[in-house]
Amino acid sequence: MSDVKKNLAVIGAQWGDEGKGKIVDLLCEDFDVVARYQGGHNAGHTVKFGDKHYTLKLIPSGIFHRDKLCILGNGMVIDPQALLEEIATLQSVGVVIEENLKISDSAHVILPYHKALDLAREEAAGEGKIGTTGRGIGPAYETKVSRYGIRVADLLDRDVLREKIEFACAEKNPVLAGVYHKETFDPAKLYEAYLGYAEQLAPRITSGTVLINEQIRAGKAIMFEGAQATMLDIDHGTYPFVTSSNCTVGGICTGLGVAPKHIHRVYGVAKAYTTRVGGGAFPTELIDAHGEHLRKRGNEFGTVTGRSRRTGWLDLPVLRTAAMLNGLDAIALTKLDVLDEFDEIQVCTGYNVRGERWKTFPAFAVAHHDYKPEYRTFKGWQTSIVGITEFDALPQNAKDYIRFVEDETGCPASIISTGPRREETIVR
Ligand code: GDP
Ligand code: IMO
Ligand code: MG
Prior knowledge:
This protein has 428 residues and is of the alpha/beta class. 32% of the residues lie in helices and 20% in strands. The chain has helices spanning 20-27, 80-92, 112-125, 137-146, 158-179, 187-201, 208-217, 250-256, 289-297, 316-326, 363-367, 396-409; strands spanning 8-12, 33-36, 45-49, 52-56, 69-72, 77-78, 101-104, 108-109, 205-206, 222-225, 265-271, 274-276, 310-312, 314-315, 330-334, 344-353, 356-358, 372-379, 413-417, 425-427. The chain has a 10-stranded mixed β-sheet, sandwiched between helices. The chain starts with 7 loop residues before the first strand and ends with a strand.
């Protein structure tokens, strides 16, 4: 970092689980504030250092650094019960969560009927299901956009809260019972439970927008922590197999109330291969022994749901799309060590769509199964690079692989991750 304070966004460049938690934790030493701007507890961000291992869902990955202010932005959807459980779990292992965690009063609240609707719809969709995390994320964003959502500030106003819960139950219960044949919710019980959560969360609730802009004005350095990823973005991802928020860089402006001029640099986090959890297109997917090797060696099982992740080769059109949409300044290339044992590694360099070569992800053609990925084969390095911290110490074949990714995406790989722990990283 230069001595000029610069704000940095860290955004998933693929379909999630790229290692954003590790990268945010690693870099946040140089920052004063770490803020989430979208998503909810569908995220699962892993942070490991020494013999410590944590999973974060709602709380920013800066929480392990005592002097960082962590903010949950207005663009998030927050399940208060999940948040309180996460706070309690972290506190029980000694993590300090006091004045350093604040919640925007304009974030939206997830209620149990959101979760019930999410699960009921997925069940009803059968084979066509999205494969959501089942946390109520989509239905909560729907209620937000419908303008009948309950915001965090509403938790602090008893009359408004009661009225809104009663109104929501009157609308959602008939859908749950009549359309999906599921249990309904008693508004009085929900009201009691949410009053309890409100009481516990009240000291953390504030105008997130004013808070973050005060920090910016005071010259503090801000890190924006993305959840989910570019290809899961509601507008730019592989719709409808996406999440319900804007994970890409624009989400920061709306999801925190921060003007674009305050986002100075954007890093994309990308695995050295590709994974995806849930349904939807995955052109470079490997349904063979190579895919199984990536899953085992990369421990590709969901942080939130435990589901096994789908695995495949690196897709450069996906990374070029992420670079374009987010204006990436650099890539943090993670899990390079997972490729250690391959004798050959393939990389998708482009797509052939009816004779035309596409260098970015041809979303429409992929949705209509009308494309052919083109690959280039690299020689593997077949030696362990786990824990290497110097670029020069990497085997030549690994360097060639990294340089190809840099050349093809136009982004320097400023960070290369060679293991899950904070220490196992090359910073260039
Ligand atoms: P996030 O959602 O983007 O924060 O990523 P997750 O934490 O869900 O998934 C990334 C997984 O890969 C976690 O289990 C990390 O501990 C692990 N991980 C991160 N970087 C590396 C790496 O360079 N090598 C290996 N082997 N594992 C890594
Ligand atoms: P992090 O932040 C990977 C996927 C789900 C599903 C789709 C919609 O850890 O990278 P949702 O519950 O959001 O409505 O599910 O999005 N998904 C993720 N996949 N990593 C995540 O978060 C994800 N959050 C949601 O699997 O396909
Ligand atoms: Mg994750």
